[in-house]
Specification:
alpha+beta, three-stranded antiparallel β-sheet, globular
Length: 157
C-alpha cells in the first residue's frame, strides 16, 4: 500500500454467508472479473441503514431472493485493503478497502428461488460450495478475511 492510499478511509459494508440445508455456502462469480474468483454477496451500507438492514437488502439485490433467516452477526468488523492497482478503479478511488460486518444466514428456499439476473446484475454464475473451500476460491487479497469467516461461522453449518 502506498502512503497516499494508506490515508484513505475504509468503506463501510456488509457481507452475507448464505448457508443451505446441506451446509454449503452460496458463491457467485462477478460479471466484471476475468479471473475464476468467486465471492459471497456483499455491498455497502447506505446512509441511514443498519448493517442488518444493508445485509438483507444486499442479499435480495444480488441473489434475487430474501428466503433466508439470520443465524448471527459477526463478533467484529472485518477489514480488507485493495491492492494498489485497484484503488483508483474501485469506488472512484475514495477508499482503501472495506470495513465489513458479516452475517451468517440460513437459506430457506430452493435453488429456483435464486435469480442473479437482478435489476443491476453483479454476477454471471453461482453455485454452492463447502465452507472450507471459500478461502481457496476468492481473490488473493480477501483470503485472510474469508478464512477468518470460515473460522467464525464454521459452527453455523
Amino acid at each position: 500500500m502506498t502512503p497516499a492510499s494508506a490515508s484513505l478511509p475504509y468503506r463501510d459494508g456488509v457481507g452475507i454467508m448464505l448457508i443451505n440445508n446441506e451446509g454449503k455456502v452460496f458463491v457467485a462469480k462477478r460479471i466484471d472479473m476475468t479471473s475464476e474468483a468467486w465471492q459471497m454477496p456483499q455491498g455497502g451500507i447506505d446512509a441511514g441503514e443498519t448493517p442488518m438492514q444493508a445485509a438483507l437488502r444486499e442479499l435480495k439485490e444480488e441473489t434475487g431472493t430474501d428466503k433466508a433467516s439470520v443465524i448471527r452477526e459477526s463478533h467484529d468488523w472485518y477489514y480488507y485493503d485493495l491492492p494498489d492497482d485497484l484503488i483508483s478503479k474501485v469506488w472512484g478511488g475514495r477508499f482503501r478497502g472495506q470495513r465489513q460486518k458479516w452475517f451468517s444466514m440460513r437459506f430457506s428456499g430452493t435453488d429456483s428461488d435464486i435469480n442473479i439476473e437482478t435489476e443491476h446484475p453483479e454476477f454471471c454464475e453461482w453455485r454452492w460450495v463447502p465452507m472450507q473451500q471459500l478461502p481457496d476460491i476468492i481473490v488473493p487479497f480477501k483470503r485472510t478475511l474469508y478464512q477468518a469467516l470460515v473460522d467464525e461461522f464454521g459452527r453455523d453449518q
